[in-house]
User: Fold these one by one.
Assistant:
Number 1:
Amino acid sequence: MSDLSSLPQGLDALETRLKQDLAWLELPAKSWIPPREADGKRVVDVVIIGGGMAGLVASGMLKRLGVANHVVLDKASAGQEGPWVTFARMRTLRSPKQLTGPAMGLPALTFRAYYEARYGNEAWVVLDRAPREIWMDYLIWYRRVLELPVCNGISVDAILPREDGMLDLVCRQRDRTEIMIARHVVLATGRDGLGGPYLPPIADDIDRNFWAHTADEIDFAALRGKRVGVVGAGASAMDNAATALEAGAARLDMFVRRKELPRINKFTGIGSQGVVHGFAGLPDEWKWRFLNYAMGQQTPPPRPSVLRVSAFPQARLHLESPISELKQIGDHLIVATPKGRYPVDFLIFGTGFKIDLTNRPELAAVAPYIRLWRDRFPTPAGMPNAELEGSPDLGDAFEFLETEPGACPALAKIHCFNFPATLSHGKLTGDIPAISEGADRLARGIVKALFVIDRERHFADLQAFDTPELLGDEWVDAETTTEKDTKLNA
């Protein structure tokens, strides 16, 4: 990761341009929310949990709309937020380089503007896709130039409803715990934000030293000279397989259930502003139909990732090879499939993530009241889908809804701005293409809720406002003037 303490001249000029753009647009808007206190401490209007891309753009949108009293909390150290320099192991992003991502409609805030400022226009022309480390550098820069209120090294252990309608957040930093009081909470917690990594049951009885999930920290250097197996062939599976091979794995076997790798990225193929803004307006059955079909077709791994693996002669792809049995024998595993039995020293599961509220202890107090799609929408005939059935049923501002009205009103103050929001709102929360549009929808919904709940105070401010625009000396009453002229002419 680059040292941004000594910025190239191009970035200095770009930042000057950005400041001018913001000034011309009168951004950020002035702070307008009346301050509140409770239990002797100031209440935070919005707490965003997660300082990755989604958390940063949510913060940027709230700031531009005048919600100054908000904070972003992330358990990682500064510069380590999100997956980009932790468990993401691809060389470049999957998304095309020209996508504007979290730029919020500001040209000087785009990745392209940042990249050209650092490396020049010619470098942009020859660039294929953004290297993930440089993308992380961009997000660090984004956070700095927008002066976003991110606090690192803080985890949220519990979100607890209060009797006054607000929320207590039990925050831990090292060995110190304190309570933060918030009016709204945004969960910008990524793909596993409402659950965790998915592992098939075959891993239940296997010693943890013999396997990892692609979201785990993995000592790839320790795999040098080893036989490595990878379950799955999605993007993460391919990138982990390539990393193991590049670290010197003696043999690598990829086990894939499908007859062939998916080749067409269906949802990306129909990407448009219609999908971005129109998906949330679809009837429920059509939302289900779109996503169930796209998920059934699956997303192909990026071509560069596949070529990165297939370049190694010791890599083998096993199609139509679901794992039927997994045994631990001495110092290695035996992977059994319909096509054969394979000894491996280490197995990596590229099996994605699952929604499981019981995996999120911070949500334990509210999880039983969160309405899921299966709680109100009958699964369409012929389209069973466990992931969709377990997706949260969200309101217009990504807020959780109650299973029973009145059971937990505080859910209206907790906003699910992470990947599981997809069925309710479309792909606005977990990927680069429409993250700004998602953050705009989120921020406007929160602003609306804050204004409505404070309406009495805003009305009192309206009544009390007494700064005159006219001073009384601009004009003279016509009748007074006429009487005066009549006396003078008499």
Number 2:
Amino acid sequence: MKLRRPRMGGLRTRLVIAFVLVALISTVTATALAYRESRTAVLERTQDAFQTDVRDRVDSVAPDFDMPPDVRALTTFADSVSSGLSGAPLVVTRYHDLVAASDGLADRSRITPELRAEVRSSGRTRFQRVEYRGEPYLVVGTPVRYEDGRDSGLEVFAVTSLLAEEEHTAALLDSVRGGLLPVLGLAALLALLAAGTVLRPVRELGRATRRLAEGDLGSRVEVRGRDELARLAADFNTTADALQTSVDELRDQEARARRFVADVSHELRTPLTAMTMVTTVLDEDAAQLPSDAARAARTVSEETARLARLVEDLMEMSRFDSGAARLDATETDLAGTIRGTLELRGWGDQVVARLPEGVRAVVDRRRVDVAVANLVGNALRHGEPPVTVTLSADADQVTVEVTDRGPGLPPDALSQVFDRFYKADSARARSEGSGLGTAIALENARLHGGTIEAANRPAERGGGAVFTLRLPRHRPGPDPRSPDGPGSGGPGTATIGGTR
């Protein structure tokens, strides 16, 4: 099974993106705060300095000013204040309804009614920042008082441009913005370095896990440091050790069980041979024995024969499990082989055989006979006629299909029908079969590099079970799990290598 790649990329990509986003947010936030603070500081310094200059200049000019003034005197007063201020800003003087300015053509709308009202009501110096024709301006208004503190009614307003200050803060913002890309690049580089440091043990752990999943139980990772990843690596090694110990124990138990079955089966052959000889004699003399004795003799003969078949099947399975099973593969006429299988067991009249001539394949004739006999025998015993055997072939594969018209296999039996000692009908626990026939048939097919499939035919097509034996037409290639090829048994041999 292939793992689907995540849409956001790997962990390295996500770490780099996270680092860059954090750096971007931090840089933008810091830039915004720095711009705001620097702009506020520049403007406060400018407005404080300008207010101080305006008050000082007014205080220096006012003692020589005669009250009450006329428009000419107000204009002179405005010119005197403006000339003494840096940059010669616009100065507007007001005395009740009389208004004069240092620049008679200048637009006086920059002095808002709100500022005039604030200066008049508070009796103190006030300022206001305004925007005029897209440019920022600072307007400072201050009242002029007599030496005894009485209000003279004279008000002075000075207007100066803040464009230089705005340009200064804008230049600061541009310089900070220009450093944004290098900061992000540095953040990405640091993220790559950090990701490499963090992900290196993760990648090693991933490789070790894949090797462990592929069967390399000795796969381990090196534990570095004392952080969380080091503890994870140590936990992985502990788990792998426990798994290897459990698997070794299971393999040892399985090997002992296989040896036990093989030894028991082998030891039973000698007494079974003697028992078979005795039961043969009893069968021959059964007609001359009393009815009860004859029945007992026949029962002993049948059970002995059944036990002998079971022992042979167990020995055959032990050969498969131990890897000792071999193929004696030769080029064979499959139609003749299958026809011989049916005739040898007396099934020629019970089976519909569709066996085209000329179908040849490199197979072990005896093992094909065993597999086909098992499938046909099961169909005859547990299915309903007609039982059909169909042979077909293409360039690379031959197929033998055995069908019947019985009730078919229960749904839960389809996945277990090739299991050892499995019987679809529990009521047949004492039937002729041992429950190993289909398992042996499947192992013989796998030994050839083929397989057997079980299915049910749809009811609209007549129903019944369908067993399909598929075999390659040519000699199976080397088993990749064996250093010397199939079975390591020399020319013309092959083994399943413990496949189940």
Number 3:
Amino acid sequence: MRIEKDSLGTLAVPNSALWGIHTERALLNFPISGIQLGTHRHLVRALACVKKAAALTNSRLGLIPADIGQAIASACDTVASGGVDHAFPIDVVQGGAGTSTNMNANEVIANLALELLGHARGSYEVVDPIGHVNKCQSTNDVYPTAVRLALVFAVEELLDRLGLLSASFAERGQAFADIPKVGRTQLQDAVPMTLGQEFTAFSVTLDEDHRRLGEAAGLLKECSLGATAIGTGITADPLYVKRVIDTLSDVTGVRLVRARDFIEATWDTGAFMTFSGTLKRTAIKLSKICSDLRLLSSGPQTGLAEIRLPPRQAGSSIMPGKVNPVIPEVINQIAFFVAGADLTVTMAADNGQLQLNAFEPAIAHALLQSVSWLTNGCDVLRELCVTGVEANEALLRSRARASTGQATALLPFVGYTVAAGLAHRALVSGRSVLEIAVNEGLLLPAEAEALMGPTSRMFSGEPACQ
């Protein structure tokens, strides 16, 4: 053990630990969720990027020695690479507006820099976690900036996976383009469509959310680094304040924008709320799609049974042969958590007081977990379900031919009253609407056959007859 000192006194820290006394206190204070900060890989990377940008800026301005600045920058590269995620053990749920997280980063980076310079861990008279690593900074500008940057990193992966999932639905839409079926509203038979149209619509709606997520992520690129405690820039060199955000842009490759008003930006969480709401929108759309997949595959003998989902595991410990739609079900559950996380973000945003929101750790965890789960969920849904969906083509064609929904397609040709009569007689007799229409001289047999073809206007949204 080594003994470290802070303003509250002394505490023993394991010699093997890259962290120091402030992190050790956080470990004692916040045994809450059991989820370690290091599990949020993008946040750890973002913290390292912020600290590197600060060190480079401070070094170039002569605010810290050049050799210390370079050692800190190199240590930040190690942290950003993911090699020391284990050194971020504090709980993601913590008091202090992220101070424990900021200090954890300061201490780890300081100790790595010390080793690079040939000194033992804890030799803070050489490289000080606060005096050097945290120079010209406060938790109140470092932490929000890092959270925003972490979400920008994370959403890049989500957008990639969401795009692949959309493409998978589009491919199934093409494969099912010629398969007629009955569309439903309020769970009742409505009008003819194709299975391809149904799956293509899934792709289109995910494409829309891909765009909305990109727009919401753009709001996160406005940051307040340089604002320090409440936005006045107190303790920071004016030249540092002017340069550090541009340096962070260079370090990350993300073009960041300086907030128009640092005091407003220090407490404002509007971008987080917008991003959270967009995540919820995406999650709920995915959940709706998965509920449709479960319903369309229900049965398989006594349900809709229009599609077959890939069987992934036995569905029961007591019912032989039962196979459940486990992949869509897990996506539903991800959506439930994302919706709950959005409420968490809302409550945290609402309860920040005066010049700082103390609850950004809750916001950070809620959003990073949501993005991570949605990213993983998109992969699972695409790889283990959508790509293997099959159509029960014979059943779909049979139902399409028998459906009274055909009467709606005839409405522009025979009028509502006649079409309604055809539908009623079809229900009573068990014959199809088109068969009755032919028998009653309203359609020629060739016209009826053409109406059921895959290129028919019955499936295009245009009037079926002129």
Number 4:
Amino acid sequence: MKSNIFKLIIAFFIFVGSASAQKQPKYIFFMIGDGMGLAQVHSAELYQASLDNKNTFYPTVFSQFPYATFATSHSLSHGVTDSGAGGTALAVGHKTKNGVIAMDSAGVKPYKSIAYLAKEKGMKVGITTSVSIDHATPASFYATQPDRDMYYEIGQDIIKSNFDFFAGSGFLKPNTNAKKEEVAPLFPQLEKAGYKLVYGLDEYNKAKSSAQKLILMNKKGTDPVSLKYAIDQKPGDLNLAEITSAAIESLSKGDQGFFLMVEGGKIDWACHANDGATSIQEVLDFNRSVEKAYEFYKKHPEETLIIVTADHETGGMAVGNGSSTLRLKNLQNQKVSQEQLTVLINEFRSKNENASWDQLKNFLGEHLGLWKSIKISEDDEEDLQEAYHKSFVEHKNETSKSMYAVNDKIAALAVKAVNKASSMSFASSNHSAAYIPVFAIGVGAEQFHKKMDNTDIPKTVSTIAGWQLP
């Protein structure tokens, strides 16, 4: 009798242990800060503390997750990846060459993303971003194309995906294919495939109860390229946290569970422009979207997995540029992005064609705090004076080009001066090979505990979820 009881006890613990080992998340958040290296995260945390004059940091919600590590991000073709190869690695677990979306380097063999694996297991799937829905990182989860610039063809791949929810600013080429030919418009094709296209939160709220498949875009008449930078947003502007909340609400209907990819796409854009204040606000904006996921996790802690990572680092950002004293608090004086500052300078120039140097100084002081709240170096002032002379005296308007913007030379130099005065610097205006951060919480999160490669991240998610990644 005692022997039988002992056997039953052993069997019970074996069963419980086995059940625990096989536990799989019902809800998976895969959140990507595009261009977000460790320096980008830490600069945002240091900045928040500096506002209270504290020599410490105020952590983001995701940097407090119980499991954290870092990963390499090189592509198959280059030591420094682009977002096509970087997004592909995170989506499908395979390296490819720069510029390719979820295919081998020859652009012949398609790879299946973990989003498709989730859909095959009966889960709902959402793909969201703060830039266009057909951009490289979100595209890597639903499309397979040999070139990231094939925006129309990438958009068409939404139809074959049959995913449940898409959101972002819009689409870049809804009427023109990769050969630059005018073709059948994309939007009617999406509607024929069962997608309800809504523009802005008001339209979303009207459609959410009846629509089975939804594509949420920015309001009509706004820029389809991206949402506004967080630093430039006004009340009523669509933001990433609102998109994330809408996705959670939509995907939570029913009992299937869901996989949701969220991209904070403009951290990368700000760092391409070497715009320190704007990059910090983009990280904080991304953090607010992670907070939405974390709020959901707290309601379903035994069923949810959240992964926060990046596709690569952008700009080679450094916090601290010589002095032992950090002056990140200076960045609070920058009220607009470099891109918006360019718009304002153009308006100022049109109204003040022959403005004096003092007038321009007052203008820059108003928007950036230079001279008024921030001491500017002699070298930076000389550079700005030279740019002023060419622009307002010689009337030769010079520009500064970054990956996603062509900004006024004065705007670029002025933001550079703010960076320097705020203890920030950049090594380049492009991507770097710096490690990417990885943070995890929830079911299976303990498996993110050692140095990884970016391809290991979707493989680990697949293992935790019980999927077979090809």
